[in-house]
Amino acid sequence: MRERSPGDSCEPERARAKRTHSVLGPTADSATAGYTPRSPEQTLLYRIVGEQLESFLSRARDTGQPAPRFIEQELRAYLRCGVLAHGFLRLHCDACKLDRLVPFSCKRRGFCPSCGGRRMAETAAHLVDCVLPEVPTRQWVLTLPYPLRYRCAYNASLTSELLSAFLRALFAELRRRARDQWDIARGQCGAVTFIQRFGSALNLNVHFHTLALDGVYTYAPDVAENPRFLPLPPPSDDEVARVLSGTARRIHRLLEARADGDALAQDEPLLAHLTAASLRTRIATGPQRGERWRRLGDRVDPDESGEDPEVSPRVPAYGGMSLHAAVGVPARDRRRLERLIQYVARPPLAHDRLQKRPDGRLTIRLKTRWRDGTTHILMERSELIERLVPLIPPPRAHQVRYHGILAPCASQRDWIVPGPETEFGASQCHSPNSNSVESFSASGEVSERGSEGERNADHRADANEVARWDHPLGSAAESASRTPASFGTPATPPRRLRWAALLQRVFEVDALRCPGCGARMRLVAAIEDPAVARKILECLDLPARAPPLKPAPSSAALGPETDFADQQQQSWEFDQTPPDTDGTG
User: Fold this and answer.
1) pLDDT > 90 in the chain, percent
2) Phi, psi angle pair for 525, to nearest 5°
3) Is residue 535 domain-resident?
4) Structural domains in the chain (count)
């Protein structure tokens, strides 16, 4: 296989350009065209980021406090995501000679709706198929006090210690209840935790969503028998409060032993200022700096009695923390469990929630109406990047954690995790005898790529991923082609769920089915060279260059009133009184 050389004729491509463009266009009929590649350049989020990025970076540099490198990489990578001019996979139908171009994605963890949506669906599929056994599961949501949210925003070690304190309190309570009900001396617990950073208003809100097995497994290391699951009834209000108080005690002892200063304000004043402003729901820069975020909706006066009529009895509060444990999933309701995982693993922003007003300003539609009637948050165009930056997680810090018997190195994990499916495409999980679940977390969660070579390696991996689907039988054919000696060793699992399989599972769309004749499309090449990509796009009469970024104005320097260095003092030691509404996602 080779890309088209400069001397090749473009006439065959131009003859098919109209048909190919109809597949790529956003108005293609799904019943006939099936898969339709997205057009990020047409979204409001892409246009605003491209319009404001250079001005934001220039203002930060002029203050002597430039944006951290990983923040700039995240923003620039989003502007490359899904743009054909930056590279693509080229698929070809041998029957009707139709071409399809599939652009590369950024694979970042911050705010990209497309890559976040893929990671959401892929993580949910992996946990349901390969990690969580068919036992009852309960969601525990721990909300942290405001000062701790600031300290955890870019302190991965503190976040891990706080999460460990919560898990110890939760597992201790589950074992205590198991002793009372089942009279067992020791039980094994298991959980998967998602560290979520955002609220529905794009405000920073670091909190934990823990999916814990609603019961314990028996533990008998001296007996050669499979662990047996012992379910527990839903926790009472007192039992939830006991977990919260135990968590608070452990966190109090932890913080007393730590003597951390405000290292974030010292090392990254810009990031500290934007983080504190996001926590306070205050405007960070500009002439309205320090004012509350502007809200829209059918506003009503808050209840002067201080009582919240919407507070659930399963949400006790203690010391600025709250714990929710009212959502449970039955043992065999795997579809509901997958929806719950998709909810806790969702990206912070969907395209339809960001809207443009007639005067050019922007609004963010809240996921649910706040208690005071607020339905939208109003902002200037220059404020959007300031809201997105604190939502970008720190590099090399996992946002999905595995605990207890579900941990990668747990001795009895192999006995309880689901096995792989035999039907091709139904499951991409590891063998039940393989303790390599952490490799999924590493590939799916840590995606900071510092070099072009690493990004190209990911693109080649995507190409190999699609190429494996060229065979009409998929992985079933691969298993049939293995030698008898190889059946004793599990096959090397893919780094990620196959692109075509994920689309088939989530949207019931076969991305490799030709929209013209219904035949199977095959991979021709992975185009990574911008010059080659430009020639192919020009032959297909498609945009051959990425949308240009709006340059920063010459007078973009910040004035003294917005000097980030002046915001170092008391950046997180602020009043813990919550805003008018909780604003949680």
Assistant:
1) 54
2) -165, 160
3) no
4) 1
